[in-house]
Amino acid sequence: MKRVIIVGAGIAGLATALRLRQIGWDPLVVERAPARRTGGFAVVFSGMGYGAAERIGILPELTRRAARGYDFAYLTRNGRPRFKVPASMLFRMIGDDALTMLRGDLEAVLYEAADAEIRFGTTVTGVSQDAGGVEVTFGDGTVERADLLVGADGLHSTVRKLVFGPERDFLVDLGHMVGALNLERLPDGAAEGSFSTVSEVGRTFVVADLGGGRVAGYFIYGCPDTGAELALGPGRALRRAFPGPRWAVTDLLGGLDEDALYFDGVAQIVMDRWSRGRVVLVGDAAWCVSLFGGYGSSLAVGGADLLATTLEAHPDDLGAALAAWEAGLRAEVADRQRRGRANIAAHAPRNRLELAIQQLPLRLAAVPPVAHLLRRHHAA
Ligand SMILES: Cc1cc2nc3c(=O)[nH]c(=O)nc-3n(C[C@H](O)[C@H](O)[C@H](O)COP(=O)(O)OP(=O)(O)OC[C@H]3O[C@@H](n4cnc5c(N)ncnc54)[C@H](O)[C@@H]3O)c2cc1C
After folding, report:
1. Which protein residue has the closest C-alpha to ligand 1 atom 38?
2. 46 with 101: CB under 8 angstroms?
3. pLDDT per residue as tens digits for the range 254-288
4. Atom of ligand 1 nearest to the CA of 218
5. Quick check: helix, strand or coil at residue 101?
6. What mean pLDDT, rounded, does the chain reach?
7. Cα separations (Å) of 75 from 85, 188, 204, 344?
């Protein structure tokens, strides 16, 4: 039985563990966090991820947890209604083979199905490889040998740093910060079954009610120096970027549990190769498209699925398997990264004109001819 060590128990790492187990490999997952990281905002899970979920057998459970239908309710910063994009329009834009769900629900379904050995509170400090295998040193000094090492440790990947080079060689900073967390209840004034959105020059705040008590909050703002925001810490950075008083935000940031918050810069990872010998990167570690690309979890699951498929097709030639895998993914990743860079202004418009231009089609979205145009635009 072939042995694989997977670094990171996020969407990419768990999907890789699940798929490699399905083709007869023995996975060991190591995760730096002391326990599962279940947080995050809503993701639209579609395209190659949706197809992979169908093949893997997790689509019914994902569908059960997905949002049934939702509107986008636009509010003023004081919480007064402005306009609403109806669910029917949104579902036409997203398409049939797509699910909107909490990132944490996707993580939970993959975790249950993967049923893999996970060592929490562990990281990797060293990697060396020879013709017969790869040796991985963990934070506690222990060493494990495997046939393959998968770096699925996200945007700030340690495996990438150890094997491919420093983050600055690959990271493209998109000049925004994102914060996301799950909420215990819907804030007063938020519409049930809606994504309640306050969009202003420079920043957006959203509360999503996905049904069944699942509520998540999301902050995004533009900034000149993402490193300085991270150094400030999430609570102080968000309070400065969303000064009060503001509907829902002021209360939320007042009692913020910083450990439960996902807070990071928005960035892409651009690399000219995703594997070196017996080490391969999957998910954000390899190709982060960013939330502006809007397809990160789909690519993570789709990429993991394709990795297992190509390894199975080339059982005695790892190099050929990894080359075929990368060739099968490159075009899709490049396209999503391009779309992500083209979409920067949509989340934190730089001025009133950009804000108005961005919201005009939304305001008109219920009008049939505009709906038709939008549908064509999103299908392109
Ligand atoms: C808790 C959480 C919440 C998120 N929320 C959002 C969100 O709201 N919006 C959004 O756009 N994106 C969010 N993301 C990122 C999103 O999940 C990814 O863009 C996408 O799903 C691809 O997943 P990934 O598995 O490649 O990376 P990630 O989801 O980032 O997973 C990487 C995993 O590796 C672990 N890890 C990192 N470094 C090490 C190390 N050195 N050793 C061991 N383990 C390590 C991390 O703890 C994490 O569990 C979130 C990620 C996390 C972890």
Report:
1. 153
2. no
3. 989 888 899 999 999 999 999 999 999 999 999 99
4. 8
5. strand
6. 91
7. 12, 13, 11, 21
Question: Which protein residue has the closest C-alpha to ligand 1 atom 27?
Answer: 154
Distance of alpha carbon 247 from alpha carbon 75, whole angstroms = 9
Average pLDDT over residues 48-76: 92
Taking the whole predicted model, whether its pTM rises above 0.85 is answered as: yes
Q: Which CATH superfamily is domain 3-39+100-171+269-342 in?
A: FAD/NAD(P)-binding domain (3.50.50.60)
Domains of the chain, by residue range, sit at 3-39+100-171+269-342
CA 153 / ligand 1 centre spacing (Å): 7
The minimum-distance atom of ligand 1 relative to the CA of 266 is 11
- Please choose, from the candidates 166, 210, 229, 244, the residue with its C-alpha nearest in 3D space to the C-alpha of residue 44: 210
Q: Which residues line ligand 1 (CB under 6 A)?
A: 7-13, 30-33, 37, 39-41, 103, 123-124, 152-154, 158, 178, 180, 262, 283-285, 291, 296-297, 300
Identify the residue whose C-alpha is closest to ligand 1 atom 23.
11
Q: pLDDT tens-digit profile of 68-110?
A: 878 888 899 999 988 887 766 666 666 678 999 999 999 999 9
